[in-house]
Amino acid sequence: MKFLVCISLVPDTTTKISFVDNDTKFNNDKVQWILNPYDEWYALVRALELKEANGGTVTVINVGPAANDQVIRKALAIGADDAIRVDGSDELDSYGIAANIAAVAKDGAYDVILSGKETISYNGSNIGGMVAEILNQPFVSYATSLDLNGNTAKISREIEGGKEIVEVNTPFVLSAAKGMAEQRIPNMKGIMQAKTKPLKVVPTIALPTLTSTVKYELPPAKAAVKLISPDNVEELVTLLHNEAKVI
Question: What CATH number does the domain located at 2-216 have?
Answer without folding.
Answer: 3.40.50.620
